[in-house]
Amino acid sequence: MPSDLNQKIYVAGHRGMVGSAIARNLQAKGYKNIITRTHAELDLTNQQAVKTFFETEMPDQVYLAAAKVGGIHANNTFPAEFIYDNLMVQNNVIHQAFVNGVRKLLFLGSSCIYPRLALQPMSEDALLTGKLEPTNEPYAIAKIAGIKMCESYNRQYGASHGVDYRSVMPTNLYGPGDNYHPENSHVIPALIRRFHEAKLANAPEVIIWGTGTPRREFLYVDDMAAASIFVMGLDKKTYDSQTQPMQSHVNVGFGSDVTIEEVAQAISKAVGYQGKISFDPTKPDGAPRKWMDSARLNQLGWKALKDLEAGLELAYVDFCTHNQSLVKL
Description:
Catalyzes the two-step NADP-dependent conversion of GDP-4-dehydro-6-deoxy-D-mannose to GDP-fucose, involving an epimerase and a reductase reaction. The protein is of the alpha/beta class.
């Protein structure tokens, strides 16, 4: 067995959609020493607890997928929690990783770090060039801080300590392990649940927030996990060839986007709902378009594999499998 498969790898947030996909993909690749902790076992907002964990476990690599996430409603309703929890988690994990000799760390950000009216597709260079989308600004600021924290530790400790902390910015993700909360989830899981419930109730119509015209890019979560492991596996010279010293993050996207109306129709088809789809223009749309420029990652040799139609079918199967209380209301 290659020695790198024996590395001790800590996946923070392994119960979340992205973290579970990363752990699943690492196991499939033969990694045998994956460390995880539930929130009950380790509160990542607790500085002392995180310090003790790193001093005890001494991981070789860290995938920082732990975060407080949610859709427009959740971000609007709980802005204090979104900025506080995310800042505390990433500050504690990144700093203790450094203190305890972790040289390789991957921080997972979000496409919301880019300005609301950024040129499309959004390139890595768009960071900090304009105003953020107001509905999720606290979350976005926390994620920007995480990127800059990784860059700062690289800048100060890269040469002297071999620190190599990287950041990936995924587009909108969906798939196994998603959050299907009726109010606090993202657009795809929220609509999967709504269309499923409408199908069971034989509802004649499903009304969706906004105009349906904003465009979004969606990436199946196992593709995101594969991209994360791919980025971590690149040698520093190769990775640095597509990044800049003070802008060392890379985008991870599918490569094309669709309107909210189009994704609603695709979800309706995957679920088997036959009723009418309407939109409520009195509700917020969010950013008019969010499409990532993933050219840097593509040039490094990675591309997404799962298209939206196939991914939605798998997501709906996962929803039905893991939400038995909702399958037959």
